[in-house]
Each structure stands twice: as C-alpha cells, then as structure tokens.
C-alpha cells in the first residue's frame, strides 16, 4: 500500500533533549489522522520533519511516496501545511499574502486567491493588512494558504487554534468534507481532543516524543469503557446491598462504580435493588470514557 | 526562470509595501543634503557664521574648499560609511524579517526551491541598494547645481560617478555575510552587530596598513577615507572582496538548504 505519510524510526534530538524518538507513522490516502499530544510532546517536531524543515537524526520520512529532504526536497506542490501559530507579512493585505503564496506555489490561475478567500470566509478582511487581523482571521489566512493550491495532503498543526467555537466547527466540517468529497488526506495535530474526536478516522497519541498508541475510530469506540456510577446518601449500605446482589462494586471517592455489562445495560434494575433496600440512589448514570479520559489515563500511565 | 520571477515579485512586493524602503531613502538623503550644506558654508563662511552655522567643523571636514571635487569626496566618503550601515539595514531586513515575522516556515515546504528564494532576495538587495546610490547621486547633482558649486566638469562628474558606483558595488558585495547573520541569527540584531563590527575592524585594519587585504576596509580605502593608503588598493583587494562575497553567498545558500528550521 502506498501511504500519504510514512515515517520509519523518525528521531530528532536537540542537544540532550529528545524531541521525537523512533516514530513510525503510516497515514493512508483519504484518512483524517488526529495526532494528539500534550504541549512539548513532539507534535510540531514531527510535523516539521514531515515538511522537511528539520533533518531527523535518524529514520526516514516519505510524503506521498516521495522521500523528504535534504535541501527541502519534497512533493510540496501537492501538500498544504500550517505550522504552529499563523504568520503573515503584516504590511501586506490578506489578499496580497495569498498572492505571494500563489506565485510561490507556481499557480498561474489568478482566480485561485479569490476562490480560497471566499471558501475560508475571508472576503470581508481580504483587503485588510495582515498585521491588523485578529488571531482567528490570521489562522483562517494560514488555512487559506494551505488550501490555495488544492493539495492532496494537508499537514496542519493545531488548525483550530485561535478560532472561536463557530470557527472550530466550520474548519472541522471543511476538513471532513475535503476528505470525503475530494479524497484529501488530513494529518492534523492537536492538544484539544474534542477537535479530533468524532471526525478523525485514526488517532495517534504522542507522549514524550514517542508514539504510544494508534487507534482506529472503531477501536477507540471499543476502548472507551462504559461504567455505571452511583451516588447514594448512605454509600456504605448501598455498597453492601449491591455486593450482596452479586455486583463487583468499586468505590471511587464518593461514587460507587459498576463496570459489568449487566449493570450498565440495566441501570433500572440496579436502582430497584437499592430502592428495595431502603437506600435509593441520589444519582445513577452510565458514563462513557471519552478520548480525553483515555488520553489522560494513557499519558499518566507513562509518566 | 518562472520560479525566480515569482520569488522576485514576492520580495519586491514586500519591499514596496514596507516603510524600510522609505526610511532608507530618507536616511541616505542626509548625505547630499549635508554635503550641500557644507558647500553653502564654505562658499561664504561669514554669511554662514552670521546664520549660526558652525563653519569650523565644516572646514575641518572638507579642508575648507567649496568645489565639486570636495563635494564629491563628501558623497563618496559618506557612501563608504553610510552605505555599510544602510545596506546592512536593508539586507538585515530582507533576510531577518522572515524570522522576526515567523514567515520563514512559509518559504520552506513549497515548490519554489529555497535557493531561488535566497537568490531573489540577493538580487533585490543589489537592485535596491544600487538604486539608492543612483538616487543619491542624482539628488546630489541636483543639490550641487542648486547650491552653484564651482569647478564642475563632465569628466569629474563621470569619474566621481564611477568611484561612487565602485565603492557602492564593493560594499554590496560584502553584504552576503550580513544576510548569513540575519538568517542564522534569526532576526535583526546579529546582522547589524556584525555590520558595526566590520565597520570598526575596517578602520583599524586601515590604520594598521592592512586595509588592502581586509575586505571590509577596501571600500573605505577606495573612498579616500584612509588618505594616502587608498593607493594600496589593487587587484588583490578586489579579489579579496570577491572571495568574501562568494563565501558569504555560498554560506547563506548552504544555511537555507540544510539548517534546521525548528522555530
């Protein structure tokens, strides 16, 4: 299979600091790959290596089947990118910034600039100097630059950073539609898990420079364990009652937790048992671990 | 070629939109204006003194003669010193701004090769600085005519023009190292620090008598700032400047090609 992104043993150190260590990534065409990690986990270093901006100490990087670097070699005509905080020439307008990018991308079609301005909702700010744009609009400008040449692969570092909630949803939908309708591969890093949860087809978790887990969307679904959480005024009696009824009860702080499927699938029966024993629940809820919980658990385990 | 033209267009647009082009032109304009002022003072010291102008310093600087050769000397010597500073400012801005504004990352993973972008920047710097020198020369002539300086001859004008352009060209050839410091230093301070350091070292080398072998002294020597030692400037001096220029250009290209862009 030919991958859109392929790294083998990618490692990068800065002096004594190991920014990324032995990262093996495989991102297939048309995937939306969510690359998750805490600040300083190695996300941006990995992205810079994918874009040939830094030279790995070890390992190799292939993008769209072509080896990346040295000397900035790569299939950049087919790759759009956004690295870290958005930057633009402050004395140029948004349109001029995009025109500079268009020419450097070698796109002869002058209309490409106007199209991407419309697409990213920048029309009202197109003739405003980039130095006067808000962080959110600067981010949109960065995304517009990444999309200007209709790339096959988008490598985006925190694409929703600086956007308002409506903007986050808009960009999420835009990326999803690019992947679904045009088969664009999206590799996006984030430390905001909800940003990738729900629309990423695969998720990689990087921690302290190492790729510690990769999850398919379905796998994530399975991994996200459900549990029944119970609160009662007399927690001890409730625990004893449930234990006598044959449940394996865990106590977490002031909450009773049941993770057996017979409890999760029939919380009404659990409630009946407690009511009959004279200790009705004050709270009864089926809780599902989300990506954030999973991520936190995983990274904490590796501390 | 198309890639180069695109890169050059982008660099030219950035320069046109920037206030740096205006500031450097205004900064350089001081040179013919001050030269013209000295001429006014020297032509009629009594009147200048009556106007409150300090004629003593003007006489010290120009040996007290108000004529075209003296006026051109002022332009030439001002060019040698001021040029180093103004050209270094332009070079530091053209390269350093990509790092100060964090826009360098938009120039790395694109179809236009990095070497083309660096080349376009160097060409822009050369055209910009030479344009400035021409502008100053033309303005200088205009001021000279307006002040009605005596002893003009077309031959003198031509010789002065050639000297001015040669000095400017030699100064420009020393800019690649400024570009390298702007790139490797990721901003404005390292290249400007380097320019000031070379300016000081150039004076010291000139005083010690090694100026003809020290590339940063050669334009200063040629401009006559170092007096009779200017005669030492020969082919070896031009070769030293050329080699320095080539080394600076090669180092800047190499840095852009292979240095980690981790910030």
Please give the radius of gyration of chain B in angstroms: 20 Å
Tell me the CATH superfamily of the largest domain in chain A: P-loop containing nucleotide triphosphate hydrolases
DSSP strand count of chain B: 0
CATH architecture of the largest domain in chain A: 3-Layer(aba) Sandwich
Distinct helical segment count of chain A: 11
Structural class of chain A: alpha/beta
Gap from first CA to last CA of chain B: 30 Å
CATH topology of the largest domain in chain A: Rossmann fold
- Overall spatial form of chain A: elongated
Number of helices of chain B: 11
Give the percentage of residues in beta strands of chain B: under 5%
Strand order of the largest sheet of chain A: 6-7-8-3-9-10
Describe the structure.
The complex is a heterodimer of chains A (303) and B (263). Chain A has 303 residues and is an alpha/beta fold. Chain A has 11 helices and 14 strands. Chain A is elongated. Chain B is 76% helix and 0% strand. Chain B has one domain. The longest helix of chain B is centred in the middle third of the chain and has 34 residues. By secondary structure, chain B is an all-alpha fold. At the A-B interface, helix 2 of A face helix 1 of B.
Question: TL;DR of this structure?
Answer:
Chain A is α/β, with parallel strands linked by helices and 303 residues long. Chain A contains 11 helices and 14 strands.
Secondary-structure blueprint:
The complex is a heterodimer of chains A (303) and B (263).
Chain A (H helix, E strand, L loop, with lengths): L4 E10 L2 E11 L4 E5 L6 H8 L7 E6 L2 E2 L11 E4 L11 H11 L6 H9 L15 H13 L5 E5 L7 H18 L2 E6 L2 H4 L5 E6 L2 E7 H7 L2 E7 L2 H10 L5 E3 L2 E4 L2 H4 L2 H10 L4 E8 L2 H11 L2
Parallel strand pairs in A: 3-8, 3-9, 6-7, 7-8
Antiparallel strand pairs in A: 1-2, 1-4, 4-5, 9-10, 11-13, 11-14, 12-13
Helix pairs in contact in A: 2-3
Chain B lengths: L1 H16 L2 H24 L1 H6 L4 H8 L5 H33 L13 H34 L6 H20 L2 H9 L4 H20 L9 H5 L12 H24 L5
Helix pairs in contact in B: 1-6, 2-5, 2-6, 5-6, 5-7, 5-8, 5-9, 6-7, 6-11, 8-9, 8-11
């Amino acid at each position: 299979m030919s991958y859109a992104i392929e790294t083998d043993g990618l490692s990068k150190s800065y002096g004594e600091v190991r920014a990324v260590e032995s990262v093996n990534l495989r991102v297939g065409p048309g995937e939306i790959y969510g690359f998750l990690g805490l600040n300083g986990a190695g996300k941006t270093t990995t992205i810079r290596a994918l874009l040939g901006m830094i030279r790995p100490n070890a390992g190799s990087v292939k993008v769209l089947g072509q080896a990346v670097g040295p000397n900035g070699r790569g299939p950049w005509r087919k790759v759009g990118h956004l690295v870290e905080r958005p930057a633009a020439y402050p004395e140029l307008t948004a349109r001029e910034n995009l025109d500079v990018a268009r020419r450097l991308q070698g796109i002869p079609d002058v209309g490409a600039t106007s199209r991407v301005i419309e697409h990213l909702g920048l029309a009202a700010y197109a003739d405003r100097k980039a130095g006067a744009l808000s962080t959110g609009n600067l981010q949109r400008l960065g995304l517009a630059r990444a999309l200007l040449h209709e790339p096959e692969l988008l490598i985006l570092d925190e694409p929703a950073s600086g956007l308002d909630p409506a903007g986050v949803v808009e960009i999420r939908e835009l990326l999803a539609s690019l992947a679904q309708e045009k088969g664009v591969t999206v590799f996006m890093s984030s430390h905001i898990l909800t940003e990738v949860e729900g629309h990423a087809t695969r998720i990689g978790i990087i921690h302290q420079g190492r790729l510690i887990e990769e999850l398919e969307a379905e796998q994530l679904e399975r991994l996200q364990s459900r549990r029944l959480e119970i609160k009662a005024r007399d927690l001890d009696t409730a625990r004893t009652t449930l234990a006598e009824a044959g449940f394996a009860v865990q106590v977490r702080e002031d909450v009773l937790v049941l993770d057996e499927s017979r409890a999760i699938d029939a919380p009404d029966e659990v409630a009946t048992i407690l009511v009959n024993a004279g200790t009705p629940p004050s709270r009864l809820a089926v809780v599902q671990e989300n990506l954030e919980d999973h991520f936190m658990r995983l990274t904490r385990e590796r501390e | 070629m198309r890639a180069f033209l695109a890169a050059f267009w982008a660099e030219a647009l950035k320069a046109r939109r920037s206030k740096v082009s205006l500031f450097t032109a205004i900064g350089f304009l001081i040179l013919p204006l001050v030269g013209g002022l000295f001429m006014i003072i020297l032509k009629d010291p009594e009147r200048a003194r009556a106007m409150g102008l300090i004629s003593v310093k003007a006489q010290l600087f120009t040996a007290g003669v108000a004529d075209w050769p003296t006026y051109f000397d002022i332009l030439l010597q001002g060019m040698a010193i001021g040029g180093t500073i103004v050209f270094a400012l332009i070079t530091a801005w053209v390269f350093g701004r990509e790092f100060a504004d964090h826009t360098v990352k938009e120039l790395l993973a694109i179809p236009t090769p990095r070497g083309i972008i660096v080349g376009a920047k160097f060409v822009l710097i050369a055209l910009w600085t030479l344009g400035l020198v021409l502008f100053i020369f033309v303005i200088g002539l205009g001021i000279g005519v307006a002040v009605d300086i005596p002893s003009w001859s077309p031959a003198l004008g031509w010789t002065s023009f050639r000297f001015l352009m040669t000095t400017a060209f030699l100064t420009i050839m020393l800019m690649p190292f400024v570009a390298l410091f702007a790139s490797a230093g990721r901003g404005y301070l390292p290249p400007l620090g380097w320019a000031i350091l070379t300016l000081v070292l150039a004076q010291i080398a000139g005083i010690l008598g090694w100026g003809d072998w020290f590339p940063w002294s050669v334009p200063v020597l040629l401009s006559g700032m170092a007096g009779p030692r200017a005669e030492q400037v020969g082919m070896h001096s031009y070769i030293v400047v050329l080699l320095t220029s080539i080394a600076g250009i090669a180092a800047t290209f190499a840095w852009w090609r292979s240095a980690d862009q981790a910030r």
